[in-house]
Amino acid sequence: MKSDDQHGTDLRDQLDALLDEHPDITGLVHALAQAVVNTRQRPISSVEIIRRVRRAEANSRTDEHEESIAHNFQPEQRPAVQALLGTAAARKKGEQAVEKTPLLIQRAAAANIPVPDIAALLDVTPSHVYAVLRKLRKAEGAE
After folding, report:
1. What are the CA-CA distances from residue 104 to residues 56, 93, 126 (Å)?
2. What per-residue confidence (pLDDT) applies to 62?
3. In this structure, how many other beta carbons lie within 10 angstroms of the beta carbon of residue 53?
4. Nearest to 109 by CA among 143, 132, 125, 139
5. Contact at 8 Å (CB) between 116 and 130?
6. CA–CA separation, 69 vs 80, rounded Å?
7. Are 108 and 118 in contact (CB under 8 A)?
8. Contact at 8 Å (CB) between 101 and 132?
9. Helix 78-110 to helix 126-142 angle, to the nearest 10 degrees?
10. The whole model's pTM is what?
11. Helices 115-122 + 126-142 axis angle, to 10
12. What is the pLDDT of residue 20?
């Protein structure tokens, strides 16, 4: 059986190899490690670590936006700029939801969730769900 030191060395070697193969994830690994170090006093789940990393990334982006807005816009323009940015973010999320919805409907149907339940969860009509499923089946048949 390996000692804790040997096991730790193996894990560090594996992490080094992973980062050599995928240098684009170095920032993420650093953020994850920082989240773990910051919570050493109590156990923490991987979900909580990911939540903290995402929150830190979002805060960083917000800080960058704030600095950019402060640098590029007059104080009286900033509320309008913030409103435009908020609307753009909401529009983008809406577009992403529209793109994902057919696949989510298909997965839910494959998981034997009844169409009325899918419709209720999405806040759409059952006829909309049936139409999406027909369209997906037709597209699969054409392939």
Report:
1. 28, 15, 14
2. 74
3. 19
4. 132
5. no
6. 11
7. yes
8. yes
9. 70
10. 0.49
11. 110
12. 75
**Token pair of 93 as six digits:** 């999320």
Q: Which residues contact 106 (CB under 8 A, 6 or more apart)?
A: 132, 133, 136
Token pair listed for 105: 């409907």
Tokens in use for 131? Answer: 């139409």
Alpha helices in 22-125 (DSSP H): 26-38, 46-72, 78-110, 115-122
Q: What is the pLDDT of residues 78-92, one digit of tens each?
A: 889 888 988 988 999
Quote the tokens at residue 9.
């060395």
Q: Which long-range contacts (CB under 8 A, 24 or more apart) does 101-110 make?
A: 101/132, 102/132, 102/135, 102/136, 105/129, 105/132, 105/133, 105/136, 106/132, 106/133, 106/136, 109/133
Q: Which residues of the chain fall below pLDDT 70? A: 1-9, 11, 23, 26, 28, 30-46, 143
CB atoms within 10 A of CB 13: 10
